[in-house]
Amino acid sequence: MEKYAIGVDIGGTTVKLGLFDTQGQAAERWEIPTVKEDGGARILPEIAQSIKDKLNSLHLTEADILGVGVGAPGPVDAEGTVHKAVNLGWDVFNIPQALRKYLDLPVKAANDANVAAFGEMWQGGGKGHANIVAVTLGTGVGGGIIVNGSILTGATGAGGEIGHIHIEDNETEPCGCKNYGCLEQYASATGVVRLARRRLAQDQEPSVLRSRGELSAKAVWDAVKAQDGVAIRIAEQFGEYLGKGLAAVAAVANPEVFVIGGGVSKAGEILFDYIRPAYEKYVFQGCRDAQFALATLGNDAGIFGAAGMIINE
Amino acid sequence: MEKYAIGVDIGGTTVKLGLFDTQGQAAERWEIPTVKEDGGARILPEIAQSIKDKLNSLHLTEADILGVGVGAPGPVDAEGTVHKAVNLGWDVFNIPQALRKYLDLPVKAANDANVAAFGEMWQGGGKGHANIVAVTLGTGVGGGIIVNGSILTGATGAGGEIGHIHIEDNETEPCGCKNYGCLEQYASATGVVRLARRRLAQDQEPSVLRSRGELSAKAVWDAVKAQDGVAIRIAEQFGEYLGKGLAAVAAVANPEVFVIGGGVSKAGEILFDYIRPAYEKYVFQGCRDAQFALATLGNDAGIFGAAGMIINE
Predict the structure, then answer these.
(1) Domains, chain B, ranges and CATH?
(2) Which parts of chain A have pLDDT scores under 70?
(3) B148, B150, B284 member nearest A78 (Cβ)
(4) What is the pairing mode between strands A90-94 and B291-294?
(5) How far apart are CA B113 and CA A78, in angstroms?
(6) Which of A19, A126, A286, B1 is deepest in the core (most CB within 10 A)?
């Protein structure tokens, strides 16, 4: 009898769910809204109910399910205790214990970025590797580190917070974390726009980026692909920061592969042309052969990873 | 019947060995010379013979021994395969397989710095913690990272090579690794001397360091303790570099405690007065509460850790 695992990815507006077989095929995917009233107290009961309804509709029972993996947007420690998830209104509590009040199944929980990294290792851009660093270049820069097939959670669930590596001493604007000069300030989508704005203000060199209304990371990378000189220099700066940051990460975690995802990664493999030279310049020799790959699971990395924690960890 | 584990720490001139009970007490410690002739081919047979002789002399047999842990000075992967240990003349081979030709016991092997970190977690400055970063401030800067009670080996055995995090863009002298601006160039014993030499050359400000023949890290820290103004500014620079580097490490590995050892650490807890301010300035908030502790096992960390890998991993 085929067994399944359920992956749950709790976001600020939507909870994504997926039913996976042990080979990593998604048999079902669905979503429910994230109900944030009452300090988020209804989120887990509604997830449990939705899972029960889905199993009923598929003529499955809890006996067919190996367990439920949960990714949550906040620091989650190795025991699955969340230490405040402000987006959800959650304080401090143990997610597996709480969910098991409503569902008689094994439950594991971890931080959503770490769970997504696990998904990319299991079925995505890092498939076939046991030591990966997943880097999400979105609004911010997120990270998830898999060591020997397991999530590097760290003491307080802050393992893999590589967006907040200090990388620039001369920054005058604060990062969202209140520090100055974090990697996230240069390598995220907003970081690319900031680099572009600063570069454009520096002189009057012609660039297709000047004729555009709103600057975006996508506009910058499109201009790079069109051989725009100013855009290329912005990309070089981006690559210098990110390559240097990932070289520091490599000296700690020594991954086989960096899996790059998030909005900025839609630019494609051209990113690596700008990251790799700086990476190779700054990295310890023994870590030089790390590969760079694009994430392949997109927004589904969370449900894949959450189910994968049940099946594969 | 009490069981024991044997810890072996292979150095460039001496092999240290220890017999440990499962509580981590050293019942015996001894040394043999490291015989480097024949490409290091005699090292493992001589270790095996020395272990057999010791067991005989103690009226113990192989049945009393849980296994042998080995720390080797080179990159060692998760399977115990060493990838060239130039100090020993070793090429690429699997240490457990090789040693088991001479000894009918379970064998585990890892890089010596990682093994020492494991020792400090098991019985040293990191005792009671499962997530530690051990930092050795010696001739170079070494590191060993323990995640959830296990060594972070990495893809090629370069996990925890934190001495080679790039930390200074304006360095003109190369590091031993051939890169420029590695943490090791400022935070090792030789790094402290380099910082001192540069500071003293900068102007003519009086300092007790000027009257000394040979500058050393110890002389600098002694002068700091004597409130020498120039020495204090050298210590601040050292702390700025090391605190910034460890903040980057924290954003990746999120340890509970940094355990600081090696020659420079003999200065004592005064080091932390200079490391902590920079660490707190640059570190991600969620990692801010990491503790700083001194290593306590000194040169025995390797044999403790090697035995600990057998007993405790």
Answers:
(1) 4-121+300-312 (3.30.420.40), 128-296 (3.30.420.40)
(2) 212, 313
(3) B148
(4) unpaired
(5) 25
(6) A126
